[in-house]
Amino acid sequence: MSRQRIALLSNPRSTGNIAQLPRIRAFCAEHPDVFHYEVEHAHQIGDAMRTIARVQPKLLVINGGDGTVQAALTELHNGGHFEGAAPPVAVLPSGKTNLIAMDLGIHGDPVRSLERLIDLARSDFSSSLVARELIALSFEENGDKPVIGMFLGGAGLADIMLYCRNRIYPLGLPNGISHVITAFAVVLRQVIGLKSKFLPPEPQPLRISVRKDGAISGKFALLAVTTLEKLLLSGELGSGGGGPLKFVAVEQRAGSLLGAFVASLRGRLGRTKLAGVHVEEADAISIEGDSSDVILDGETFRAESGRPIFLRPAAPLSFVRLAA
Q: What is the rounded (10 degree) CA torsion for 38, 44, 45, 50?
């Protein structure tokens, strides 16, 4: 196959693609620089990567939500389809949350973003590349083929994400309204302490090991592990470790939640000691609980007693960041 500048991997089932994919297909048909491959299920991404590798693109663009990105990153990490380094990755915002796309400065109309990416690929775009550490999740301390992602939510945060996904999104409301309703439910449950079957459940106890010399245990309203930069409002995180995994855990107390929220708004999260707020930069993290869910870029995993989840850094990839 001839070398094409861009390979576009699309998931037609992603929220944004339901309306936008016809325009994207028409755009690709008019631009021979773009090799367009569509998948509807995660198990098809391996075949997609094998085909894309034969095209030898200068740039791989993922057109889907965070779950599609996670599946593609996992295949890039584990599959070994590309000779040498994998091509740089760009992400179009086509899901409901799009944390990864936002972190990379790609937002707005996907066709316009594709046009900008084609312009970049026609030149030396090294100045637009950023290295991103990745999270490797496995159930064994030295798992051979981990799942790869960039943001993990656990404890009460995972419960909230699942509540929004399973209870609010099915109402068919716009994303913005769905997120406002979810935020209101969070305030009622986490801050005011109201209990109801219509609100997110109470978090289950967790034991989290971030450093070799100790662990923290309890119920946490928020647990997040990420390599993204824009998720957390503070520039520098943690008081020790210096690892690539940015870790935040907030205990299930209204005062701790409010303190963490105010510190984030002020850009002070992790720089000021707060009761019940744990911020670290780590090289390895383990999470053990009694049937407690964690979500890595849209995919749900369960931390069990005696079967902890292990998180470690994976080899970094190059991503395209578009200037505003």
A: -90
The residue with greater pLDDT, 103 or 324, is 103
Residue 120 to residues 26, 68, 117, 129, 309, Cα–Cα distance (Å)? 20, 23, 5, 11, 39
In a domain, residue 314? The reply is no
Amino acid of residue 70: Q
Residue with tokens 């091509």: 87
Residue 264 pLDDT greater than 90, yes or no: no
- The pLDDT, as a whole number, for residue 202 is 83
Residue 1 inside a domain? The answer is no
Place of tokens 């799942």: 147
Report the alpha-carbon distance of residue 169 to residue 303 in Å, rounded: 25
pTM, two decimals, is 0.82
- The pLDDT-based confidence of 213 (bands split at 50, 70, 90) is low
Single out the residue in 106, 134, 162 at which a domain terminates.
134
Give the integer Cα–Cα distance in Å for 53 and 285. Answer: 33
Residues 6+ apart with CB under 8 A from 65: 11, 14, 15, 16, 94, 95, 96, 97, 98, 298
Q: Residue 308: how many CA atoms within 13 Å on its side-chain side?
A: 14
pLDDT in tens, 69-112: 888 999 988 878 888 788 999 888 766 656 677 777 677 788 88
Strand partners, 216: 208
What is the domain count for the chain?
Answer: 2
